[in-house]
Write a structure and sequence with these properties.
There is one protein chain. The protein is α/β, with parallel strands linked by helices. It has three domains: 2-322, ABC transporter transmembrane region fold (Up-down Bundle); 330-416 and 498-506 and 524-590, Rossmann fold; 425-495, Rossmann fold, CATH 3.40.50.300. The chain has 19 helices and ten strands. Strand 9 (544-549) and strand 10 (552-555) form a beta hairpin. The chain is elongated and about 115 Å long.
């Protein structure tokens, strides 16, 4: 049971140790520098003893001066090597932590959509930002402070044993007390660090909620409720952080006092030895100076223990994320020159119970427009996510140009699919940057052409800064229709072989959809289109229509009915001519 309890911690530290494999040369250099650095401690110890046992008794004040100068020079050289060690270790730890951060970000792109739907964004944000910073601090403490201090402490302990093994044994009297107090306080620090990390994560998630949901809070007039909740997080953080700081300070003070106690014992025992003429003053002072140095290095190690404890909690959290088995559902590697054909064969899928899709069969071909209709929540968006490879069916399979999804490189396939969601995602930046996202090689002429096809160039031209207009976080400075058009332009910029429009009439009116369809049908390439909507009127543009009902895709017969007069007028104004009109079921004129 104990081994099992320790296994996550062991695995996390094993991963952490492996991160230093490429830094072996830096670690060896650190060891060599620490060795050279310690060499310059030896002359200082010898000169202290020489001053009090030889120079001062002889009244050689010039000798005192020269010994003082020599000690100062040794200290300067020691300081230079300390800075060198610090520089090497900091570069090493920063490189390692940067690699860990890259591993985490890379891991995020390999995790399944199910993982994200079941995870809290605030927790993931805390791991990637706060926990990696704590691991950075721990790495700095371990490599830049504790490792050199342990090395120097071991060397100084050997020197103390050589200077006076009797006094060295006297100092060991404090060791059991030191170890006992260290164990008790370390456990308290560990528990306090866990509570501190928990409360900090809650505070971080709370702040994230405030910034992302400010409109919701104001619309629901929930400011007081939200302030009360955030105050609870803040007060909890104040209490846990204060408790952690208290135990941190207590730990350091107790350990420092125990180190001072050891030095007092040495002074008393050394004084008795001098009184009995079994030790010289110089010998005692050189031992005392060495013990003082050892105490300083020990204090550095002790001060870093709370940092290491907190870093250990963070390391466990990020390693758990790195070890997550919720990987993407497909692992194929074969590249594909996608032509636009997607086939769903006997596909069933469920998030829980009951099933969302049951035995769905659907085929999308180049040059054809397929329509999916159905009530909200019937499974239309799920089919889109299956096509994009975000999920894999529980039963059945998907094929692209006849190749099974399990075999092909999904990234290669997705590059040939243009997907416009109901609520497109944008980032803070210019219109040009948002349209060109994922296609950095695209120039402004290509961006303008895609925007023209998506009907976005009209409003962009009216903006003071045109394509260089900053749209704010999540395009808050744009209307829903403007956002939709930019999203469509982004999808078209990549020259997709399949374009998926999810609920286009949510933000685009029928006239706009009519003009958009004219542009898409006028493309030279045989573009495959998938229109997803609960609006039956938009289905007049589809060649084939499927209704998702009770999880089954049912073909809808094309029924010739009178088209709405408003649409006839719109067609006359735009000059659109549709083959095989009418498409689907269109409401009759009143």
């Amino acid at each position: 049971m104990k081994l099992r309890a320790q296994s996550p911690n062991y695995a996390a530290w094993l991963y952490y140790a492996r991160c230093y494999r490429r830094q072996n040369q830096s670690l060896v250099l650190t060891f060599l520098l620490c060795t050279v650095q310690f060499v310059f401690v030896l002359p200082t110890i010898y000169l202290v003893r020489h001053v009090f046992d030889v120079v001062i008794p002889r009244g050689n004040w010039h000798g005192v001066l020269w010994d003082g100068v020599a000690i100062t020079v040794c200290q300067i050289i020691y300081t230079v090597f300390s800075l060198w060690v610090r520089n090497v270790t900091v570069r090493t730890t920063k490189t390692v932590v940067s690699n860990i951060r890259y591993d985490l970000v890379s891991r995020l792109y390999s995790l399944s959509r199910t993982f994200y739907s079941e995870s809290e964004r605030g927790s993931l944000h805390n791991i990637l930002v706060q926990d990696t910073e704590r691991v950075d601090m721990m790495s700095n403490a371990l490599i830049a402070r504790i490792l050199p201090s342990v090395f120097a402490g071991a060397a100084l302990s050997v020197l103390l044993l050589w200077l006076s093994w009797k006094l060295f044994l006297v100092t060991l009297v404090v060791a059991p007390l030191l170890l006992g107090v260290n164990h008790v306080l370390r456990e308290r620090v560990k528990r306090a660090s866990q509570e501190f990390r928990r409360s900090f994560e809650n505070f971080s998630k709370g702040v994230l909620f405030v910034t992302e949901s400010i409109d919701l809070t104001r619309a629901q007039t929930a400011e007081k409720l939200e302030l009360t909740r955030q105050k609870t997080y803040i007060e909890d953080l104040r209490e846990t952080s204060g408790l952690f700081a208290l135990f941190d300070t207590t730990y350091n003070l107790v350990q420092s006092n125990l180190g001072t106690l050891a030095m007092v014992i040495v002074l008393i025992a050394g004084g008795v030895a001098i009184a009995h003429h079994s030790m010289t003053i110089g010998a005692l002072l050189s031992f005392f100076v060495t013990l003082r140095l050892l105490n300083q290095y020990g204090a550095q190690v002790i001060q870093m223990v709370p940092v290491v404890v907190l870093g250990n909690q963070a390391l466990l959290a990020l390693h758990q994320l790195l070890s997550s088995e919720a990987i993407e559902p497909y692992r194929g590697t074969a590249p594909i020159d996608f032509k636009g054909e997607i086939r769903l064969k006997d596909v069933s899928f469920r998030y829980g119970k009951p099933a969302v899709l049951n035995d769905v069969n659907l085929i999308i071909k180049p040059g054809r427009c397929i329509g999916l209709i159905g009530a909200n929540g019937c499974g239309k968006t799920t089919i889109l996510h299956l096509i994009l490879g975000f999920y894999r069916p529980e039963i059945g399979a998907l094929y692209c140009d006849g190749f099974a999804y399990d075999d092909v490189d999904l990234s290669c396939l997705r590059r040939a699919i243009g997907f416009v969601a109901q609520n497109p995602i944008f980032f803070s930046g210019t219109i040009r940057e948002n349209i060109a996202y994922g296609a950095p090689e695209a120039g402004l002429p290509q961006i303008r052409h895609a925007a023209s096809l998506a009907l976005a160039d009209e409003f962009i031209a009216r903006l003071p800064n045109g394509y260089e207009t900053n749209i704010g976080d999540d395009a808050t400075r744009l209307s829903g229709g403007q956002r939709q058009r930019i999203a469509i332009a982004r999808a078209l910029l990549r020259h997709p072989k399949l374009l998926v429009l999810d609920e286009p009439t949510n933000h685009l009116d029928i006239p706009a959809v009519t003009r958009l369809m004219k542009n898409l049908r006028g493309l030279e390439s045989q573009l495959a289109l998938l229109l997803v909507s609960h609006d039956r009127e938009v289905m007049r543009y589809a060649d084939d229509i499927y209704e998702i009902e009770n999880g089954v895709a049912v073909p809808v017969a094309k029924v010739e009915k009178t088209i709405s007069p408003a649409l006839v007028v719109e067609d006359a104004l735009t000059g659109i001519e549709f083959k095989n009109q009418p498409y689907g079921t269109v409401p009759q004129a009143d």
